[in-house]
Amino acid sequence: MTQLTYQFALPLPITQATRQMAQEFANQHSNANKADQVRLNTLAVLVVQDYLQLMDIPTNLTASDSWNQVLRLCADVADLQVAGLGRLECRPVLPNQTLCPVPPETWTDRIGYVVVELDEAAESAQLLGFVPRATTEELPLSQLRSPEELLDHLAELRYPQPSALANLSQWIQGAIDEGWQTLEELLNPAQLSPAIAFRGRLGTQTPSKRIDLNGVAAVLAVDARPLADESTDICLQLHPPIDGFLPIGTRFSVLNEVGEVELETTATGTEDFLEWQVGCTSGDRFSVQVSLNEVHITQDFVI
Amino acid sequence: MIAQLSTLILDQTSMSELDQQIRELVIEACKHPPGSAPRQRNLTRVIRMVSPKLWRESVPYYQDAVQQTWVYFCRHICGSYDPELGSVPTWLNAFLKFRLRDFSTDIKKDQVTRVSSQIEWDGEVINRIETIPAQPYTEPLLEIVESWAIADVTGELKSLHIKGHPEVNAQMLILRRLSETKWKDLADHFGVGIPALSSFYQRQCVPRLRNFGESEGYINSK
What gap in Å lies between CA A131 and CA A134, rounded to an integer? Predict the structure, then answer.
């Protein structure tokens, strides 16, 4: 029983199948510490999977690194592939811990980090909460957000609200708006390399967002940088999300402040990505619109 | 006498307050389609509120019965639950007790035909799986991955390295991580920060290890 209680901790059961699987994986390792690590990681992943199943959120265990025996051996990973979204890291803690260790090898390529408290004696667990990003080896549990916010976070990733205004001056200072991920989180490695190599403009950390075109998910990447004359140079790229092409007829447009189309290009089905480069000064507003047939997704920007 | 009576009334009031709150959360949840965030959030709140009120039994299949109860709850609360039949906790506990009884019956059936995973020993129930002694275990996969990394048949693992640090290559990093070298020690030794090391590991080493695992058939099924 935890002495430290978290207001929004969610009690969840640990089923017999879960315990057996965790023990089976643990038995694959001769090193006792490794075996322990794998057992706890597996328990955490399966508890989260059971919860997501209750919430009707589809997952793909066999596509998770935690289900790949080589990766379990070579890294401290406890990821759960959430279908269509990405890897959710499920970190275990024991009762009465105030910090959750987050291994460096899980700091990128994750849509979020869920902390699961395991009370093996009681055979029960609590979902303590989550954070969307992690860049330190120890996460204070006091920083956790509620499980309900995890649900909102997943929903936001699935259906991003494109109309939220992105403030590019703030981006340049390092404050990226909520709802934007990184380019490497959204593209696969085969697309990432040419995208970055092209004129060396984009990087793995370039803010990017999924654009849902009626089931076809494209990726919008935006790089803003200040120029010597105090204007801002903006590179906008539209990528298909998997090894494929943007559907023929996809229109990638830049609109001015009053919604008039200033620049427009249409995908012919053969490009790796579409790109626009624009220059703006402080206070300028513009929008990027991605359209396919009747569907228009607009993202507003201000400098 | 009067003091006792008023306490009783108070308890009943606070019980039905909780039931009322739960009922309202259910009504709210059911206004939204399955799989939608508002529905998920409200169902989650109910799970949190009802959990302390669940019937408890100290049996090995208890957690399984609870999970099945939650599955039933999430799937059927907006269809099969009739408020006239009682509060949500009452309705769920009834289901839970039925599940527990089913498990108990199944186990009795199993015990007749095969050895169960439970052994009773001096009145203490021991999980059979846990009593299998840990044998000195050679880990073939460790040697296999090590050999693969050392062989580096295409030379790729040795050629991939952190910019500016040719000695920090994928092959070295994989082998060091296999032997459980800590990130901090690697960072100190090579004078490269942990974020740079781990980012390189995730971007260059993990995909290759992942492919190796997939091609050699080391993905578990479930």
Answer: 7
Q: Are residues A136 and A179 in the same domain?
A: no
The radius of gyration computed from the CA coordinates of chain A, to the nearest angstrom, equals: 22
What is the span of the domain harbouring residue A23? Answer: 10-156
List the CATH number of the domain containing A234: 2.60.40
> What pLDDT sits at residue A16?
95
Chain A residues close to B222, C-beta within 8 Å:
21, 61-62, 67
Of B34, B48, B218, the CB nearest to A69: B218
Q: How many residues can be counted in chain B?
A: 222
- The count of structural domains within chain A is 2
Q: Are residues A22 and A47 in the same domain?
A: yes
Domain boundary among A156, A182, A203: A156
Residue where one domain finishes, among candidates A156, A179, A210: A156
In sequence order, the 6+-apart residues with CB closer than 8 A to the CB of A136 are A102
Quick one: A33 and A112 in the same domain?
yes
pLDDT, position B114: 53
Nearest to B180 by CA among A33, A206, A42: A33
Claim to verify: residue A197 and residue A295 sit in the same structural domain: yes
**Chain B contacts in chain A segment 75-114 (CB below 8 A):** 75, 103-109
Q: Which of residues 156-175 of A touch B (CB under 8 A)?
A: none
Given CB atoms, is A189 within the 8 Å cutoff of chain B?
A: yes
**B101-138 as b/e, with b when 16 or more CB fall inside 10 Å?**
eebeeebeeeeeeeeeebeeeeeeeeeeeeeeeeeeee
Give me the DSSP letters along B17-76. Answer: HHHHHHHHHHHHHHTS-TT-HHHHHHHHHHHHHHGGGS----STTHHHHHHHHHHHHHHH
Query: Collapsing DSSP states into helix, strand and coil, what is residue A68?
Result: strand
B197 CB neighbours in chain A (<8 A) are 104
Residue A238 lies inside a defined structural domain of this protein:
yes
- What digits encode the pLDDT tens for the residues A102-151? 999 999 889 999 999 999 887 899 999 999 988 899 999 999 999 999 99
Q: Name the band, by pLDDT with cuts 50, 70 and 90, for residue B27.
A: very high
Does the beta carbon of B142 lie under 8 angstroms from any beta carbon of chain A? yes
- Looking at beta carbons, which residues of chain A come within 8 Å of B160? none
